[in-house]
Design goal:
CATH class of the largest domain in chain A: Alpha Beta
Largest interface: A-B, 60 and 60 residues
Shape of chain A: globular
Number of strands of chain B: 2
Radius of gyration of chain B: 25 Å
Strand content of chain A: 5-15%
CATH superfamily of the largest domain in chain A: Periplasmic binding protein-like II
Shape of chain B: flat
Order of helices and strands of chain A: HHEHEHEHHEEEHHHHHHEHEEHHHEHHH
Distance between the termini of chain B: 44 Å
Strand content of chain B: under 5%
Strand order of the largest sheet of chain B: 1-2
Helix content of chain A: 40-55%
Helix content of chain B: 55-70%
CATH class of the largest domain in chain B: Mainly Alpha
Number of strands of chain A: 10
Radius of gyration of chain A: 26 Å
Oligomer: heterodimer
Structural class of chain B: mainly alpha
Distance between the termini of chain A: 83 Å
Order of helices and strands of chain B: EEHHHHHHHHHHHHH
């Protein structure tokens, strides 16, 4: 019986099924290049471009905004969204503001599917890496060239240098909304009580550490997730000392970037401070806000290096009468090559408009609304932080000494502000954290930290799969 | 002659039976289980950034890069250490507790556990009820320089000088392993108690009449009869230790001092979402999966060897 012999045994059937199971989807995958679909975009159509509607938002269109819900919340965008919805000249648009704390994870499928939101605040620890989405973003020069709701050209109302942090490869694609000042923060009341003077260069820190120790206090302290605040301080200080000579090699991943004498000199002093016991030990095992409250509430340390968000972040755990003030990061010595007052100040909270969004004009219009004087002033008052729009903070800083010192620093710096982009651009922070935790804990020499940080820089430079962006 | 398959008539009944009970589940299995696996294998051979529909095929480059990446190798080593140590300690402690609660009682009368054993049983199960992330955050506070542990040691007269348990490369891994073991012991103790309860009381009494002490009873009577349970526990705990993401993220989200507690899953997450290298991250996932399979195979093999002649038909 031919048929009987050729019949499929149960084992063979299962074996065949298993082979098919392995092969079929594989073939299908290769053929269709897997999940990413592409397509989409341009769904909302465009309206007529007029002076009051510079991007041509279509009447009755919808705007979809996803905002990072961090230190500043999302209510400031909602406020602007209400103003925009009430703007009669647009012919009625509706704005939906969604919050997210994990921008990259939540929006990744929407980018791949070709259906991203119209406006995104790409901020926070889980933001999308810039080099992965650059070519999918609208340039935003036209937003700055347009007039704000009060009728003034927007670029004339902004602080200096605000385009720099959002410009990659010469294209301005991210509008950073909040002005952040990097500095060293202290309690002015504590300094007055003890007759301490505010340091003016790294050379002054040893004496101040001595004075702190005499009072049973430390000069600095740190928390494990924020150990790289000290890297920020060291790098910024070196740039203040020696300018682009330090900055450009670091930004462009030079093989000798970390060996510059200004960085080395500052690291030596910091190492000396650690070895002298002026840095509170144990930071590598302390959660960072807990550590910060040891500075702001218990006043165990005199100084804390951070961005200007620190006042808002520690609002509830700051000692009464603390009178927080900030100074710019310090040059190595009296021979700084940059103009006096040079400091790191950069606009933060980057807002982006994806090209494939349904209503990119709506996203831009919402940005224009946020940059109006009314919205910007409301932000400064509620968050005690200046936006990139000038002249929104009154002389009394709404009662905040830290906000007043920020305004003073920014005024003193004028156009002499700089920013450091490469660490975030290439996602290096989490690799740098363990190194800084070890160094601050006294477990590493200057030579060791230099070679380890340089090794990280070299690794990114040598990695051909990472797209490099030249920073000027 | 009507069409036949393996000597069976292809009636409507038979074909509809196959369609509903074999083809449908098979299709679901293929679409939702197998195809993601295969897709992952494919993505692992591309330079996909995760945020665009475009990618290039790069072959095995990602794997070459992984095995030249010292941080990844360190994370892998940490995982291996975890997979070897965590199950061993957890199972030994769980076995000791389970034995004490079931057969560790008085040596006269019926074979029974220590007094108050039902109370201990409930108590030791508590940690398992708490979600892992809560446990991790709780212990990160306890281990802090000004935390409960240093306070308690201070009260005992041991001055630790505000030692940072999670901030020192020498203690971070040990402290982390302790937390994982602490949270897992209760569950495996209950599992072992159930296994011991399945052993006939007559066997235990016979052993006692023959003069076996408690330790001898455990090694010669209990352990051989619950080998399968121990093996299962070993594999489950090992898989958990090869992942360990939640504990690590809660205790030392940054990877610990000198990356001493960094695990592959953390590094994978970082590579995908912070650095935008989804292709490379997927390759890490594949390595992790292969390692997990190897681990399970190794454990089953070892237990086969120990099992020896009385293994019989059990797997």
């Amino acid at each position: 019986m031919e048929l009987k012999e050729a019949s499929i045994s149960r084992r063979n059937l299962l074996r065949g099924a298993a082979t098919a199971a392995l092969l079929l989807p594989f073939g299908a995958t290769l053929a269709s290049c897997a999940a990413p679909g592409g397509g989409g975009g341009g769904g909302a159509g465009t309206g007529k471009v007029t002076a009051d509607n510079p991007f041509g938002v279509a009447a009755n269109s919808k705007v979809d905004a996803v905002i990072f819900n961090g230190g500043y919340g999302i209510d400031y965008v909602e406020t602007s969204a209400k103003i925009m919805e009430g703007n009669k000249k647009l012919g009625g648009v509706s704005v939906k503001v969604n919050s997210s704390t994990k921008i990259a994870q939540e929006l990744q499928p929407r980018f791949v599917g070709g259906n991203p939101p119209d406006l995104i605040d790409n901020s926070g620890a889980n933001s999308i890496g810039w080099n992965t989405i650059l070519d999918q973003l609208e340039t935003l020069d036209d937003v700055l060239d347009s007039n704000n709701l009060e009728g003034t050209k927007i670029s004339d109302t902004l602080f200096g240098g605000v385009k720099a942090p959002g410009t990659f490869d010469g294209k301005f694609v991210a509008l950073n909304y909040v002005m952040t000042v990097y500095g060293i923060w202290y309690s002015s009341s504590l300094f007055e009580e003890n007759g301490w003077t505010v340091p003016t260069s790294w050379q002054d820190l040893k004496a101040l550490g001595e004075a702190a120790k005499a009072k049973g206090k430390y000069l600095f302290l740190w928390g494990k997730e924020a150990a790289t605040y000290y890297q920020t301080m060291v790098v910024d200080s070196a740039v203040i000392q020696a300018g682009d000579d330090v900055r450009l090699p670091l930004e462009n991943l030079d093989a000798k970037a970390w060996s510059h004498p200004a960085i080395q000199g500052i690291l030596e002093i910091l190492y000396d401070l650690i070895k002298s016991g002026y840095v509170k030990p144990g930071g590598g095992g302390t959660q960072f806000t807990q550590a910060q409250s040891q500075w702001s509430l218990d006043q165990e340390a005199l100084l804390y290096p951070s961005g200007s968000w620190i006042e808002n972040e520690m609002k509830k755990t700051t000692k009464d009468g603390f009178k927080m003030k900030g100074i710019a990061e310090l040059p190595l010595d009296a021979n700084q090559t940059t103009p006096k007052g040079t400091m790191r100040a950069e606009a933060g909270e980057p807002f982006i408009v994806p090209k494939k969004a349904k209503n990119p004009a709506g996203g831009k219009e919402l940005l224009r609304t946020m940059l109006s004087k009314e919205s910007a002033t409301a932000f400064a008052k509620a968050k005690l932080a200046p936006t990139i729009v000038k002249d929104t903070v009154p002389a009394d800083g709404f009662g905040s000494t830290a906000l007043v010192s920020q305004s003073e620093l920014l005024a003193a710096a004028g156009d002499n502000v700089f920013t450091i982009k490469s660490f975030n651009l290439y996602g290096m922070n989490s690799d740098q954290l363990p190194i800084w935790n070890s160094f601050l804990g006294g477990g590493m020499t200057v030579a060791e930290i230099t070679s380890q940080l340089q090794a990280l820089t070299d690794k990114v430079r040598e990695d051909s799969s990472v797209k490099k962006i030249e920073i000027k | 002659m009507s069409p036949r398959l393996g000597g069976r008539k292809l009636t409507f009944d038979f074909i509809s039976f196959i369609a509903v009970f074999l083809l449908l589940p098979l299709a679901i299995f293929l679409i939702f289980v197998i195809s993601p696996f295969v897709q992952a294998l494919y993505y692992a051979m591309t330079n996909w950034t995760g945020f665009s529909p475009n990618m290039d095929f790069v072959g095995l480059d990602n794997y070459v890069r992984l095995f030249n990446d010292s941080t990844f190798k360190q994370a892998m080593l940490n995982n291996v250490v975890l997979a070897l140590i965590v199950p061993l300690i957890t199972i030994v402690i769980a076995l000791v507790f389970a034995s004490m609660i079931t057969v560790g009682g008085p040596s006269h009368g019926q074979v029974r556990g220590l007094r108050g054993s039902s109370f201990y049983r409930v108590i030791s199960f508590f940690p398992y009820v708490i979600p892992a992330i809560v446990i991790a955050i709780l212990w990160s506070m306890i281990y802090a320089p000004t935390g409960l542990l240093n306070g308690a040691l201070g009260a005992l007269g041991i001055d630790t000088g505000q030692f940072a348990w999670l901030g020192d490369a020498n203690t971070a891994m040990g402290a982390t392993i302790f937390v994982i073991v602490w949270s897992m012991v209760g569950f495996y103790m209950i599992l072992f108690i159930a296994a011991i309860k399945g052993i006939p009381a007559e066997t235990l009494e016979a052993a006692r009449i023959d003069g076996a002490g408690r330790f001898r009873t455990v090694t010669s009577i209990l352990l051989p009869q619950m080998r399968d349970n121990v093996q299962t526990a070993y594999i489950y705990l090992g898989i958990m230790a090869l992942d360990a993401f939640v504990y690590m993220a809660g205790l030392n989200s940054t990877g610990g001092p000198g990356n001493s507690t960094l695990v592959m899953s953390q590094y994978l997450f970082r590579t995908a979402f912070e650095k935008g290298q989804f292709g490379l991250a997927t390759a890490m996932g594949v390595v992790l999966a292969v390692l997990t399979l190897l681990f399970a195979a190794l454990i089953i093999g070892v237990f086969r060897l120990i099992g020896g002649k009385d293994e019989g038909g059990r797997a």
